[in-house]
Amino acid sequence: MPLNIGVLALQGDFQEHRAVLESLGAAVTEVRLPHQLEGLDGLVIPGGESTTIVKLAHRWGFPDALRQFVDEGGAVWGTCAGMIVMASALLETEPEPLSLMDITVSRNSFGRQVDSFETDIPVKGVPGGPVHAVFIRAPSVQDQGEGVECIAQLEDGTPVAVRSGKLMATAFHPELTPDTRIHEMFLRLSAGEPSPV
Amino acid sequence: MATSTNGTATSYIERVREPRWLNSQDAEVGSYAVKSGLAQMLKGGVIMDVVNDEQAKIAEDAGAVAVMALERVPADIRQDGGVARMSDPNMIEAILKAVTIPVMAKSRIGHFVEAQVLQALGVDFCDESEVLTPADHEFHSNKWAFKMPFVCGCTNLGEALRRIGEGASMIRTKGEAGTGDVVEAVTHARTVLGEIKRLQHLPEMELMTAAKNLGAPYDLVLEVARTGKLPVVNFAAGGIATPADAALMMQIGVDGVFVGSGIFKSGNPAQRADAIVQATTHFDNPDIIANVSRDLGEAMVGISSNELPESEQLAKRGW
What we know:
Helix content of chain B: 40-55%
Low-confidence stretches of chain A: none
Distance between the termini of chain A: 26 Å
Number of strands of chain B: 9
Number of helices of chain B: 14
Shape of chain B: globular
Radius of gyration of chain B: 19 Å
Mean pLDDT of chain B: 90
Helix content of chain A: 10-25%
Order of helices and strands of chain A: EHEEHHEHEEEEEEEEH
Order of helices and strands of chain B: HEHEHEHHEHEEHEHHHEHEHHH
Strand order of the largest sheet of chain B: 8-7-6-5-4-3-2-9
Distance between the termini of chain B: 32 Å
Radius of gyration of chain A: 15 Å
Oligomer: heterodimer
Number of helices of chain A: 5
Low-confidence stretches of chain B: 1-9, 18-25
C-alpha cells in the first residue's frame, strides 16, 4: 500500500510537492477542504504566500481540523510559508498562525525578494552530505519549545529547519531542487518509522 | 549550483546562462532559481492592481498573493490617454511599507532604467508591461542583468519564449487590459497552451523549423516539446473581472491570475477581491464559485475588446 499524502492546495507551489511525492511512490491528494484530510498519513503545507494560505485556512475551517489531524497521529511538514502556518507565534502581528508546532517564527526574516538566496546546509537525519537550500523571502525560527529539535541552521546559527515528533518545518524549499532526500525523510516520518537521528 | 525543479527552467538556464551566477562560493543572491522560485510561490493566487497604500491593505486582507503598484489602473490609462510611465517612487515606497506580501511594479517595455530604479527601491517583481507606453520599438530589457525577477506579457508561445530567453522569470498572457472583457485573455491562454501541445507532437526533426517559425530560442523549444509546459510560471491577465472569469482561466490551465481594473473599479472592492481569491483556489468547485458570486454589486463597466480600434489595443505592444 502506498502512503497517502495530502498537499494543502489552498495556494502556493503544491504541484511541485505533488510531483516529488508521486515520484517517490506516494498517493497524493490535493486538499482544499477539511474533509479531504480523512485517511491521510501525512500532509505537506507548501510554499506560497503565508497571509493568503492562513486566511483561506481560517475561512474553510482548517485550524481545528488540522489540530485534530495532528492529535490523531498525522504527520505534517511545512515549507517556508508552511512553516509560518504551523507556528504557535509570529514576531509580526499578522497573520494568526495555526499553532500546530511550538515555534516562534519571523516572516521575511532575511529581507525582500532581492535578498533571497540559495546555499548548501547539512540537515540532521539526512545522509549523504549537505542539502542545497533555496530561501525565497524566507522565515526563520526565533524560538522553539521543549521537544522541538533544530535539524538545520545557517552558518551564523539561525535555525531554518525543526522537528518535533511527526511534525517538521523547513524555511527553505526542497521541492524546488531535484534532491528528494527531505521528501523521503517526511515519508519515513509519515510511515511512523523511527527517527534515524 | 542553481537548480530548479520539476520543469522550471533547468536545462536551458544551466547550459546557457547560469554560469554568470557561479563565480563565488558564498550564498547566491538573485539567482535564477530564487527569481523563478518566487513566481512559483505565487501559484494558485491572485495579483491585484492597486494605486495607493489603502488599496494595497484591502488587497492583502482579501488574500492577494501580491500587489501591483501603479499610479493609474489600465481602465484609467485608456481613458486619460497620453504617455503612461513608471509610478512615482514615493507611491511605490508607501505600498512597500504598507503590506508584507510581495510588491510588483511596472516598467515600460525596453526602459531598463525604470527597471533599475524599481530594483533600487526594493520592488520584489518588475512587470515589463505593455500597459505602459513602450520606450523601445525593437528591444525588451535584458532581464538577466537584474537580481529582481521580471514578469512579461505574451499573446503566443513565441513571444513567451523570447521573453524567457531574455531572462523573464514569469509569464502572463496579456489579454486586453482595462476592458473587463475576458475574451482576449482566453484567446491568448488557449493560443499558448495549444502551441505547447502542438510542439509535443512534432517529431524532433521539425523542431528547428518550429523554432524559426515561432521566433523562439531553439533550446527552449526543445525543452517545451519535452516537458509539455512553459519553463516558468504562467498567469493570465487582461480583462478578468469576476470570480467566474478567474476560475475559467484556472480551468483552462494557467497557474494564477492578475486582476487589474476589475477590483477597484467595481462597486464593492473588498468583497469582490475576496470572492475572486476564493474562486481561484476553488476553481473546480462550482458550488463555492456560485456562493462567492452572490451580491457582489456592480462589476466594472467594461468595454468590448472587439470595439477597440487597433491603435488602442495594448496587447499589440511587445516584439
